[in-house]
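Lab manual, section 2.4: Encoding a predicted structure.

Procedure: take the sequence of the chain (285 residues), apply the prediction step described in section 2.3, and record the output as structure tokens. A sample record is shown.
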Amino acid sequence: MTAYRSFLFAPGNHPRRVEKALTLAADAVILDLEDAVAVSEKVATRPLVAQALTARRTGKLYVRVNGLATDWCHGDLTEVVRPGLDGIILPKTEYPHDLRIADWMLANLERAHGLPVGGVDLIPIIETALGISNLAAICRSGTRARRLAFGAGDFTLDMGMAWSRSEAELLPARSACVMESRAAGMEPPLDTVWADLRDAEGFLASANHAAQLGFQGKMCIHPDQIAGTNAAFSPDEATIARARRIVEAFETAERDGLASIQLDGQFIDYPIVERARRVLRQGGA
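Recorded output:
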């Protein structure tokens, strides 16, 4: 099963940072054409990103293009949809037709370059009040998008919120992303970045909280965040061992006609067992 725990941003106009990012333990690297690139450099950065698609890397390679409503999105897609591209990150998605338009553009570019139609992944970032308001329709857009991401920076700006260390103000939007993804049959979403690079403790708390809420991974803005993110969204050895004991004990009881048991004082029934099996799948056990 492909892991989608850590997505590391790298500015597309810094070749040395891109080269380093591609060697790290992130599950995916996102070469950025949007916020990390100045307006004056956006067009000139496209060929640098396109060239990086041919480089060796340890994980998957995505490109965050500029939003559909900008002057650059069409040119970004035209330049970077090439062999070697695993996916596109589409920022500021607010309507289901945003995904349908992007999907149509990707399909035509895939045909033009002899790529399998539908092979390029598409991940929308939900980062405005309008995007959250339209989440149910976005998740049911009927496109190639299999998971979405939540972006707190632009969301709190749009809402006039203070982005606090506890991130309590993000709970309704985060929960909506998880719930609507699940209701639409999508994969669990990806969580927002953590912006304060000086606060490693706060970052780890954010990552663990997102995992507990049902996110499958987190976007990162610094290499130092990769290990903590991978750990937060992976079961540890003790959790895997406990899950294995639950499954084995329940399967033994089930053969004897029992549908609920107690293990070390914990009540075990089918939902608990299914959660344990999910842990084993996540841990590759």
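Check your result against the sample. The chain has two domains: 6-232, 237-282.
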